Recover the amino acids of this structure.
């Protein structure tokens, strides 16, 4: 009986995750964390999220305010996923690495896994995209963190024509399809064994307006 209860507890822990998002409007637009919870639910996985994202905030702003410290002290999270602006320049790269390291120290203290949410540049700065990708990869590697390569998937998707736009009208924030791509990229990284090719379009068409774009999002996320 005790062995059965232990097995059930292990199964519950594997199928349930708690994630703290720390970022800005690129994270909270369209309630992306809520989309992630929904995707998990549709695939039999309980994902609970808490979003500390605030407008125009970089990682250092969250560190100074101390909210992340208080949340982690409660010891109720499995992952902290951090996000700031595109960070294509040297200063942004330094912030990604150094401020990310400060979060990494906190995560190690409370035995929480750190992840980077790689974002994308605005249309007007699209030419900086490769540096955005590169700097996020470097920061994640240096801090031994998980990299959620949303920006890289975003760029690949945009190489195809006649698909739903990932950008909203301001050409920077994500459309609903853009936030869905972000949420599904994060989900797939956390649960690579789940075949996202089997996701039924009808469950997600409130965010992606046509099946062609939906299939292309899945295709690019499945690329290594």
């Amino acid at each position: 009986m005790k062995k059965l209860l232990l097995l059930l507890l292990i199964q519950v822990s594997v199928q349930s995750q708690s994630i703290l998002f720390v970022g800005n409007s690129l994270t909270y637009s369209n309630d992306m964390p809520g989309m992630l919870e929904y995707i998990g639910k549709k695939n039999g996985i309980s994902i609970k999220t808490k979003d500390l994202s605030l407008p125009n905030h970089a990682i250092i702003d969250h560190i100074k305010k101390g909210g992340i410290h208080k949340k982690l002290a409660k010891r109720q999270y499995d992952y902290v996923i951090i996000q700031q602006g595109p960070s294509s320049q040297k200063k942004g790269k330094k912030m990604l690495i150094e401020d990310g390291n400060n979060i990494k120290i906190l995560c190690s203290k409370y035995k929480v896994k750190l992840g980077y949410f790689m974002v994308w540049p605005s249309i007007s700065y699209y030419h900086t995209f490769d540096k955005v990708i590169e700097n996020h990869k470097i920061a994640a590697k240096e801090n031994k963190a998980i990299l959620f390569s949303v920006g890289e998937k975003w760029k690949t998707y945009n190489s195809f024509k006649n698909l739903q736009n990932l950008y909203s009208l301001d050409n920077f924030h994500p459309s609903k399809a853009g936030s869905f791509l972000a949420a599904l990229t994060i989900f797939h990284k956390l649960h690579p064994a789940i075949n996202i090719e089997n996701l039924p379009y009808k469950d997600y068409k409130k965010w992606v307006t046509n099946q062609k774009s939906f299939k292309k999002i899945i295709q690019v996320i499945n690329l290594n």
